[in-house]
């Protein structure tokens, strides 16, 4: 069966069309909680054969409360008090969103007969991490020329920025000597944007899934305090 890979939290079309909530702002506010939760699940977790689950908050309109598409599920969460949600502070909104994800997910799991233990463990992990996550992406890392250290790429998730990717340069001892943001942070899954890396003509190059270069990092051209790693 298809393994579970993505969780989305969104507002229903009826809510958005009525102008009662800024759809993008709500989605962006929930993004990092959903992404951290998904990252905390086992990579081989199977929900019900769907790779993507969308929790759609607000009245479903003419649509059923549970929609089943090939590879995807949509569950309506109604009622949802958008006004009360907007009035709370960011930390409270994070807790509200995680509780919604945990409860709605467990209800769906009971319906389809999936294993609830990984879902509960993922929720506990998000709380333990204080709704923040910075995870190395090993496939994008590269040793420095001459084995003088390495470049690590990290995917960071958190409130206020959503998702941020960083290229971190470490010396031979493992000490951080440079850190560069690889793209403007956004509430957007960028895993396909940063797909593979290589050294090309002495420059660290990262390409997206379709091949174009999306990030480059050049080493210092000379020794000394005025010389540094440059994103070019």
Could you list some keywords that capture this structure?
232 residues; 5 helices; 28% helix
Description:
By secondary structure, this protein is an alpha+beta fold. The protein has five helices and 13 strands. The protein has helices at 13-17, 23-40, 82-87, 90-112, 117-128, and strands at residues 6-11, 52-57, 66-69, 72-77, 133-136, 142-143, 149-158, 162-171, 176-181, 196-200, 203-207, 213-218, 230-231. Strand 3 (66-69) and strand 4 form a beta hairpin. Helix 2 (23-40) packs across helix 4 (90-112), helix 2 (23-40) crosses helix 5 and helix 4 runs antiparallel to helix 5 (117-128). The chain is elongated. The termini are far apart.
Task: Set out the fold topology.
Elements: E1 6-11, H1 13-17, H2 23-40, E2 52-57, E3 66-69, E4 72-77, H3 82-87, H4 90-112, H5 117-128, E5 133-136, E6 142-143, E7 149-158, E8 162-171, E9 176-181, E10 196-200, E11 203-207, E12 213-218, E13 230-231
Parallel strand pairs: 1-2, 2-4
Antiparallel strand pairs: 3-4, 5-7, 6-7, 7-8, 8-9, 10-11, 11-12, 12-13
Helix pairs in contact: 2-4, 2-5, 4-5
């Amino acid at each position: 069966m298809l393994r579970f890979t993505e969780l989305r939290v969104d507002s229903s079309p009826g809510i958005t069309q009525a102008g009662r909530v800024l759809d993008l702002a709500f989605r962006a506010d929930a993004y990092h909680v959903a992404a951290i939760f998904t990252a905390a699940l086992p990579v081989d977790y199977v929900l019900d054969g769907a790779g993507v689950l969308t929790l759609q908050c607000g009245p479903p309109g003419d649509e059923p409360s549970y929609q089943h598409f090939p590879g995807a599920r949509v569950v309506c969460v109604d009622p949802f008090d958008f006004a009360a949600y907007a009035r709370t502070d960011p930390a409270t909104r994070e807790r509200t969103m995680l509780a919604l994800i945990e409860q709605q997910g467990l209800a769906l799991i009971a319906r389809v007969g999936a294993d609830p233990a990984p879902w509960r463990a993922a929720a506990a992990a998000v709380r333990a991490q204080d709704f923040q996550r910075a995870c190395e992406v090993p496939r994008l890392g590269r040793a420095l020329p001459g084995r003088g250290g390495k470049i690590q790429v990290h995917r960071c998730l958190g409130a206020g920025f959503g998702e941020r990717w960083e290229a971190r340069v470490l010396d031979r001892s493992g000490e951080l000597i440079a850190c560069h943001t690889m793209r403007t942070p956004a509430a957007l899954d960028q895993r396909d944007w940063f797909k593979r890396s290589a050294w090309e003509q002495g420059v660290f190059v990262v390409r997206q899934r379709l091949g174009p270069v999306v990030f480059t990092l050049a080493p210092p051209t000379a020794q000394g305090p005025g010389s540094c790693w440059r994103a070019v």
